[in-house]
Amino acid sequence: MSRPAPRDFKVADLSLAAFGRKEIELAEHEMPGLMAIRKEYAAAQPLAGARITGSLHMTVQTAVLIETLVALGADVRWCSCNIFSTQDHAAAAIAEVGIPVFAWKGETLEEYWWCTEQALTWEGFSGPNMILDDGGDATLLVHKGVEYQKAGAVPDPATAENEELAIVLKLLRSSSLNWAEVASEIKGVTEETTTGVHRLYEMHRDGNLLFPAINVNDAVTKSKFDNKYGCRHSLVDGINRATDVLIGGKVAVVCGYGDVGKGCAESLRGQGARVIVTEIDPICALQAAMDGYQVATLQDVVGIADIFITTTGNKDIIMAADMAKMKHQAIVGNIGHFDNEIDMAGLARIPGIVKDEVKPQVHTWTFADGKKIIVLSEGRLLNLGNATGHPSFVMSNSFADQTLAQDRAVHQAGGVPGRRLHAAEAPGREGRPAPPGRAGREAHHAHPVAGRLHRRQRRGPLQGRPLPLLTPPGVGRQQMTTVQEAPGLHGHVAELEAVKEQARAEKEGAATDAQHAKGKLTVDERLELLFDSGTFTEIEPLRRHRASAFGMGRRKPLGDGVVIGWGTVHGRRVFAYAHDFRVFGGALGEAHAEKIHKVMDLAIETGAPLVGLCDGAGARIQEGVTALAGYGGIFRRNVAASGVIPQISVILGPCAGGAAYSPALTDFVFMVRDTAQMFITGPDVVRAVTGEEITHNGLGGADVHAGTSGVSHFAYTDERDCLEEVRHLLSLLPANNQEEPPFEPPTDDPKRPNHNLLSLVPTDPARSYDVRAVIEELVDDGDYFEVHAAWAPNVICALARMDGQAVGIIANQPAVMAGVLDIHASEKAARFVQFCDAFSIPLITLLDVPGFLPGVDQEHSGIIRHGAKLLYAYCNATVPRIQLIMRKAYGGAYIVMDSRSIGADLSYAWPANEIAVMGAEGAANVIFRREIAAAEDPDAVRAARIKEYQQELMHPYYAAERGLVDDVIDPAETRWTLIKALRMLRTKRVLLPSKKHGNPPM
Q: Alpha-carbon distance 558 to 554, whole Å?
């Protein structure tokens, strides 16, 4: 057959052909699969006689596919499968060499379907004998044509349910093609996308599929590379070209978590966005959660996100009503395929809405209230409409699959003569498949991983699922038998099990008995208590140390005294390392440290909490400086992880010397009484240097650090209780600083009145009460998790839930030292504020504070510096911050405890509040000192002046009148008031000035 005339095409600008040819030549270097197929098989012309209609994005990479098909002998006619995806210079280059192509960027829908008809129109033939489809439009047009031809008439376009169907009906009414003859000539279709595959399966299910089909989309080298890695590259490229927004720091919603969604979520998180996934498939939703993403419904997050991306290939994912709820300047885009994922028609019907083009394929839609959203590529594929699509190497994998699938379909259907492209699949001697040919080897040299990919393709022309009428591709039965009968693996597996059994045996027996005799659990028992049952996965269990001095060469136990790995806690991924005291007393050596480094790096890189179960004798003396260097690597990673992932240290045995610094760098420290101790120098050294006599527990036990030093946040009597509380704490924390804390649907009525508060808090500022009772009244189900309960008890720090959301609560405790702030209380609260701010936990501050603790000791010990720590922490916090003044709030302590003046978002007060520089009595003594001293009745004058000061400056509404309190509220309405404020502040975003870091008063 002679080629069609060179003018059989329609493109935007033929003068762009030279530019297109240059880019095609660049792409060829990055598409080794296609180029190797072309080089090896072009001489044999395996596709001679194939008439291929292609309906796929007309890009530079597609041009390489088209020219590969032509090089193998096929005749090709081509159109784009998307009105915006064409690269005009690529289309021009293909037209220039005489290949019919009908595509230009910005086609109307009428033009789009005209182009599809042109690609199906073959001079001298009824039509193509093969279709290469992306989204199924070419296949759909053939089937619709046959359907209406059989029915005897095409329906009136005016009866169509949507604009596009009306256009298709109008085209079919005017078409001169005999659609039944067109369909009879077609030997098969190879489908590129998830959307098109769904269409084909539905047609097959309904008995309407007219010719064989191959699902190229599900080929491993297509779906995993194109859908995941291609989208990971091209999504952010499209967003950046379209909007130039900084993705980092924004909230992005990815609708769908298939392979496309996975790639999109990964790319957005890689840019620094906080990614939320919506997904209806429970397995995909679970994958998203286990990959560290927040999973929510669109309705829950539609008002807080900055970027929305649909990835499903389905319809009605984001509706017009959803877009109406989005925030100002929210960006909406689709990478899942068709424009009906986003309800563009419904958006256009919203009363008063105005569409405005910012630049091609970027439009703002302005609602009647002035709010705008930005829609990319009019709801179609933004990575092609706003950018240039997937990188060439990714498309090489996909398009190599398409080439192989076209060959298989046309030959298996018996349609054309010629040599099979897959001749190398024929069994060689002894029934084994012949080795990959030159194409595979050359592809390997062209790209470091292409060889492996191409060889996999060669063993089975398509890894995806074919539709009926084509036998399943892949490894044949004879090949499978050969693999199953290969010798040697059974013996190796038995050897592996023996090695692992030896490792288990080394730690059992006397070593385990000794651990239990001390009242301690083994490392395996601890991990089973920490993680959801059966979920812990150990890594590097076969690691050994390399030391040889001091007899170390004679004992090299597997695992080297530490177990590392990951599992789930309440269904969410958590990493852990756990010292095994039975091996070298849990002492840290080089290999031991490298294992801990490994799991810390994994936790940081995957964004999951890290728990350290510490039970070790410090640095391994026999390994000298390498052991000390191992601690340095741990400390450096502790700092790198700080504020990125939650870090929890659980002290279950000795933790001495340099080992104690790692827990001190983590967010929370748990200790078990009697068995756990932490200190830099032990009792023997203390005795030798200072002469002081003290026990291990007296020097560094759990109660000492929980109540005196403040090093430990929690102390428990039993390991089981301790680890259960670690699990509880993790349930309140996000996986990392890019996620919201986990939401738990509340069972407690958010509007529940708090009448008890009217009697819990006495109006007399001199009377004490326990603020814990106030916290119980306010939070969901009265449940809160107090941090540092035994240290600096004059301030309470606690995690709780309100309306199902985690909150951090800081409260003065009038029951201890009247609730004054001192050095320890300031430091305790500052550390807690910093933690909550790092992990997006809103802060609620309950004030009843008479001021800072006076005294020489406090001043000389640096109350100014330590108080400034709390001030710095609050001022630096960008999370939602709400202040509630319950009773008195005096002096600098009022300012420091998150007042409006240092950035609290909202400040509420109860009707009996007193906000002043100091108490009325002290103020009167200062202001009226001389008058009182000169009075005949000083007490009467003092009382009068105190009353005057109270009435003038300390009445409950003084601060509210000056805008320093947002409202004075009924205590019984406190819970609902705070919850409403938290709901409003949920979308709060604050950008701090650019700086390397601040310089807090350490």
A: 13
Contact present, 820 and 851 (Cβ < 8 Å):
yes
Burial of 931 (0-12, 13-18, 19+ CB in 10 A): middle
Contact between residue 157 and residue 170 where contact means Cβ atoms under 8 Å apart: yes
658 in catalytic set: yes
For residue 784, CA distances in Å to 289, 374, 626, 672, 729 come to 25, 42, 44, 21, 10
Exposure string for 779-809, b = 16+ CB within 10 A, e = fewer: bbeeebbbbbbbbbbbbbbbbbbbbebbbbb
Known catalytic membership, residue 892: yes
End-to-end CA distance of the chain: 83
pTM of the model: 0.54
Question: What is the band of 483 on the pLDDT scale with cuts at 50, 70, 90?
Answer: very low
**CB 263 within 8 Å of CB 229:** yes
CB 679 within 8 A of CB 654: no
Helix (H) / strand (E) containing 648:
strand 647-651
User: Has 230 been annotated as catalytic?
Assistant: no
Residue length, the chain? Answer: 1002
| Catalytic option among 862, 892, 903, 922 | 892
Phi, psi (deg, nearest 5) at residue 714: -140, 145
Q: Mind listing the pLDDT tens digit for each residue in 864-913?
A: 999 999 999 999 999 999 999 998 888 888 899 999 999 999 999 999 87
- Residue among 586, 607, 658, 701 flagged as catalytic: 658
Choosing from 333, 616, 657, 819, the catalytic residue is 657
> Does 511 qualify as catalytic in the annotation?
no
Give the separation between CA 433 and CA 105, rounded to whole angstroms: 46
Catalytic annotation, pick one of 893, 904, 959, 981: 893
- Rounded (10°) CA dihedral 916, 921, 923, 928: 150
**Burial of 645 (C-beta count, 10 Å sphere; 0-12/13-18/19+):** buried
Percentage of the chain with pLDDT > 90? Answer: 59
